[in-house]
Amino acid sequence: MARPPLKPLRSDDRVLLELWAREFGPALKSYFAKRVSSPGEADDLVQDVFVRLARRADLASIETVEGYLFQTARTSIAEYYRKRASSRADLQDMFDEDEHIVAGISIETVLADKEAVANLISALYELPEKTRDIFVLYHFEGHKQMQIAQDLNIGIRTVERHLAQANAFLLKRVGRER
Fold first, then answer.
1. Nearest-angstrom CA–CA distance, 176 and 178
2. Taking 80 as the threshold, does the pLDDT of residue 86 lie above it?
3. Which residues are bridge partners to 105 per DSSP?
4. Which of the residues 50, 110, 142, 166 could staple to 135 if both were Cys, CB 3.0 to 4.6 A apart?
5. pLDDT, tens digit (0-9, with 9 covering 90-100), for 95-150
6. Are 136 and 108 in contact (CB under 8 A)?
7. How far, in Å, CA of 95 to CA of 108, rounded?
8. Which of the two residues, 36 and 134, has the higher pLDDT score?
9. How far is Cα 119 from Cα 111, in angstroms, rounded to an integer?
10. Is the CATH number of domain 101-178 1.10.10.10?
11. Which pLDDT value is given to residue 176?
């Protein structure tokens, strides 16, 4: 989906963007640096967050700036990994069975496990964005439920509900394969 072109910013929105870039830019860069392989990619993702903000009308209406910025950052990193995964899907590695043999693990098992992971990733992208973000924060990034609730400015019960919905959906969608 193509993004709308950037429109000239109102002067008060420009001031807010510059202020937020100075105030939150280093924290965003640190957030991304922990999740990508190079500082250049982290810089690009920080820029993406602010470009997304620049496309939004009336920045002054954002009530919780830090929460909004980091929610946007989570969306950016999710899209980054989705694009990265899809661009790598076309690449094929030559497989030399003698180099990849692990005692007791068959090629069929490895392929079945890869397929299970691919199915899980696909199912994750079928979840609503907020539910997926909460699931990823809790299960993959190790955040506590209370921290997620505070970061997203939602109640702990809402976090629990999203996690329960995600778990139920993923179990149903992917199933218990073993």
1. 6
2. no
3. 102
4. 166
5. 555 555 555 667 777 777 788 788 888 888 888 999 999 998 898 888 999 999 99
6. no
7. 13
8. 134
9. 12
10. yes
11. 56
CB 156 within 8 A of CB 109: no
Q: CATH for 10-82?
A: 1.10.1740
pLDDT digits (tens, 9 = 90+) for 2-23: 555 555 667 677 888 889 989 9
Token duo for residue 127: 């979840």
pTM attached to this predicted model: 0.48
Q: Which of 165, 144, 169 is nearest to 156 (CA)?
A: 144
Question: What are 129's two structure tokens?
Answer: 């964005």
In 3D space, the residue among 81, 62, 58 whose CA is nearest the CA of residue 71 turns out to be 62
Structural domain boundaries of the chain? 10-82, 101-178
